[in-house]
Design goal:
Elements (H helix, E strand, L loop, with lengths): L1 E9 L4 H21 L5 E8 L2 E8 L2 H22 L2 E9 L4
Antiparallel strand pairs: 1-3, 1-4, 2-3
Helix pairs in contact: 1-2
Length: about 100
């Protein structure tokens, strides 16, 4: 069983400007978490001209909580810099079949 966290992102910047901020601020932290074994994988998806979702997957809930605490400051800084809003949702993913 794995854990998934979805961060819904909405801001007044265009997607291209948001990606510049993502590459500068967020991507290095995500890659470091992945290298440390905390983060299993992540995907960034554009859902509109000014919105998107960051989908992250973890092996355990403890790793997900560690990730949330580690990236909280970055998330606050990016929201303040861009004037955007973010909502996070997390939970278990069970395979069926």
């Amino acid at each position: 069983m794995s854990y998934t966290r979805v961060l819904v992102i909405e801001n007044p910047l265009s997607w291209a400007e948001g990606m510049k901020s993502f590459r500068k601020n967020t991507r290095p932290a995500l890659n470091a978490a992945k290298k440390a074994g905390v983060l299993k994988k992540y995907t960034l998806v554009q859902t509109g001209e000014h919105s998107g979702m960051l989908i992250t997957e973890f092996d355990t809930k403890a790793k997900m909580n560690k990730y949330v605490k580690a990236l909280a400051a970055i998330r606050r800084d990016v929201a303040a810099e861009t004037g955007g809003q973010m909502w996070g949702y997390g939970g278990q993913v069970k395979a069926s079949g």
